[in-house]
Amino acid sequence: MYPAVLIVDDEATIIDSLEGILSDDGFEVIHAFNGYEALKKIDSHSPDIVLLDIWMPGMDGIDTLKEIKQHHPSLPVVMITGHGSIESAVEATKSGAFDFLEKPLSIDKVILTINNALNFRKLEEENRYLRKKAIKKNSITGTSPAVRKLYGEIMTAAPTESSILITGENGTGKEMVARTIHQFSRRPEGPFIIINCAAIPEDHLESELFGHEKGAFEGATAKNRGKFELAAGGTLFLDEIGDMSISTQAKMLRALESKTFQRIGASRTLHMNVRVITSSNKDLDAEIKEGRFREDLFFRLNVIPIHVPPLRERRDDIPILVDFFLSQLAEKSSAPKKTLSEEALKLLTQWHWKGNVRELKNLMERLSIMVENDVIGKNDIPAPYNPEIDNLPEIDDGHTRLFTMEKLDQAKAAFEMEFIHFRVDRMNGDLQAAAKQMGTSLNFIKKRISKS
Ligand SMILES: Nc1ncnc2c1ncn2[C@@H]1O[C@H](COP(=O)(O)OP(=O)(O)OP(=O)(O)O)[C@@H](O)[C@H]1O
């Protein structure tokens, strides 16, 4: 299919000559003599690019451009201008024109500009596609009322510029929520920068956040841009904010209030252009009471609070998450997708999931590697998730000791003792029950135990 170019000009001679040149170059050409006709032709012919004369009677080029951009924001528009009309050119740029062609038109320049615009559009489309894919990959799986409520909160908060504090236990998906907010924010094309306050030594955190000049402190051998600069135009996600020291908290508050900051060792003040999202798995109210977290900073960060509930409070999501992770793993390893038997799934929906979604994700990875069958059964679920499978004791020491024995009888007896004690412990000291389980008599056990 040939790319379609819409030429909009009130001068028939310009249209004729451009039409001739572009048709010879393999473009499909459509024309319009004024802005109104152009808007109609865009709707009826869906051109790939518009060449638009800036000076036209009636609706002029700038007004037509504004209308086009309002209804077709991704359609590239190249303005055709008279020589030296700088003011109109500036206004057209502000209104979203892709480029300019100056009259008298040069054929080579026209073709080059059209191709640039078409390539740019293709790139933009690719970006949009990749972004959609990223959103899908990062999307919060789950249909429980808790997750639906969370989605609602994310969608309300995302398009604002307010600070957001995300709370929730480890592994509940706080980072994922922050990424989703960024993707649906007003700045999705901007960077999403993460800094984990707990993972960075206290004396490095300030320079990581604000950057430093060469020589600002011992070891600062080169200038370094901080995360506030790197996140410009995008979102800065401060994970585990509860671990930030009081002195860094003070600097952070100052920066957020003034919307400016300085690199360490610099005199120049930089303007801050970031959306700040923070997260914490600590109870910040308690931290404030203990004097470890500044209340004024908390209010600054907590303009919109979002709580991510633990997995045990949204067990309905477990089957969906299991299916989601198993699909993801199958895709990654190009192997057939595994499923969980009903009994196996039942076991998992009963577990308390202290490590939340991360723990579930890790278990699915482990099972998909360890289990050969396509259906993962109840017996494949390991301890401690499966109460019917014993949690084996730490036998390493005993193991070594048994293997240092030379005589088989001696090793057998030693093993027997360990085994009996272990089984009796498992039955909370109930010798009768342990004997039954082991298939021996009560007397036999008693004798053995009295020997030890
Ligand atoms: N609802 C969900 N759907 C799909 N994957 C999820 C979901 N929630 C969490 N995950 C996955 O679980 C893992 C842990 O999530 P994430 O890192 O966002 O949690 P977190 O709360 O930020 O953890 P931490 O407090 O330890 O930093 C990630 O691999 C993430 O992709």
TrEMBL record:
Domain of life: Bacteria
Keyword Aminoacyl-tRNA synthetase tagged: no
4-aspartylphosphate: residues carrying this PTM: 53
Pfam families: AAA_lid_14, Response_reg, Sigma54_activat
Residue intervals of the Response regulatory domain: 4-118
PANTHER family named among the record's database cross-references: TRANSCRIPTIONAL REGULATOR (NTRC FAMILY), TRANSCRIPTIONAL REGULATORY PROTEIN
Name listed for the protein in its UniProt record: Sigma-54-dependent Fis family transcriptional regulator
Organism of derivation: Desulfobacter latus
